[in-house]
Design brief:
Layout lengths: L20 H9 L5 E7 L5 E7 H9 L5 E4 L22 E6 L5 E2 L6 E9 L10 H13 L4 E14 L3 H5 L8 E2 L13 H16 L6 E4 L5 E5 L3 E2 H21 L2 E4 L12 E9 L2 E2 L12 H13 L4 H4 L21 E3 L6 E4 L6 E4 L8 H17 L25 H9 L2 H7 L1 H19 L4 H7 L4
Parallel strand pairs: 1-6, 15-16
Antiparallel strand pairs: 1-2, 3-4, 4-6, 5-6, 7-8, 7-10, 7-11, 7-12, 7-13, 9-10, 13-14, 13-17, 16-17
Helix pairs in contact: 1-2, 3-9, 5-6, 7-9, 10-12, 11-12
Amino acid sequence: MATAPMPGPSRGPQFLGTLTPIQFREAVRIGEVRRVRIATIDLQGRLRGKTFPAAGVVEQLLDETMRMEGCGYLLATDLGMVAAESWWRDGYGDMRLAPDARTARVVPWVPHTALVLADPLDTTGQRLPVAPGTVLREQLAALAGLGLELRVGLESEFVVYHAPDEDQVQQGAGARTRRPVTGPGRDYAFDLPEKVAQYLARLTSALSNAGLPVEAVKTEGAPGQMEITFPYGDATAACEQHVLFKEATRAFAGRHHMDATFMAAPDDSTGSGLHLHLSLWREDQPVLAHPDRPGELSPLGEHVVAGLLGALPELMPFVAPYVNSYKRYRDHSFAPTRFAWGRDNRSCAVRVVGHGPGLHLEVRLPGADANPYLLVAAAAAAARWGIEQPLPPPPPVTGDAYRKADAPLVPLSLSDAVGAFETSALAVELFGEKVVAHYALAADAELAFHERHVSDLEVQRGFDQA
């Protein structure tokens, strides 16, 4: 009886992370990359685009001759990709998408696929000013004009639930019936259910293979809540990384019969943040820390704090873009309710953290639902404004910032936030009239959606009692 040969060691992928032109061609030639996704970033910070057979486009991508178009509504719809009536005035024609082969990378959560990011262009070949990538690029260029480089690190919280069974879906079971994959009080815990531990291990491994190494993973305090932190570095790369991280998080959750959400407030007692750690550098040296007084900010660092506290109240649609975003801002929730700052103080909107030259700022305002490109652009613009004025910050808070009655309140609703944004001369000064008008329309579309729909909770509360 013949004996079957023992299988040899399994071959993993030859190409990981970003691809050089030589690697891109070879990966396509040997069939490791069979498809290419060409994607842009929409207003909500999601990947949107088309998939092509790799062999048919690799050379066009590398020699920059590929022409691709997409409907202009990719930059003019609400969260549900519904076009607001006011955006129809231009007829929703096509916009050109210019792929950048330097962004090519493998995405292990999509087999045999590479991703290439594309810039939206107008009819003259210029980058569209309202595109999130362009908005960020303009703000980073303005800082560079001051001889400054912005570096950031993102900490993202998200909540993972057991996915409903098929019969529950058919019965119309809503999101409120989903069960979190861990119980309460699991902050910093190691004894996770095996299925959850496997999910996190496979997610972080795939991110590493995509060239997106994770700095740390931890559980958070709310049921099912996790946090993943990425290393500090280039601002644009951090935003790209975050968009891909969200896609991978959802993809691997589905493979484990789970659902992951980045809502800011997925239930009445949970808030998920996207904490933005930022510092400024000049000639490869950090400049936020005081050179002679350890633990204190430099004068420039104080101007940055003042800029953040002074400008972000008028830029909140870039920080908290949805109706749900504002349900996270509650007293003693670890989400700030006042525009205050302090040293290692988690009750503040801006927290000074770190040691020595690594002293930097953590902006705790954004929820997990923020578009990272717009969030970082808002922080960069606010920091620049504080430096250029130059502005002094208010006194730091050493106690409970939730009780700091003289500190301005965070807006209570998206309606309040967009009202300040669309009438803000400062927002126009920092971003231009076209960008402010476009994102004010996006916020108005979000408000209009909620105004014309009746929620399950409204029916549950009022059906028998009203």
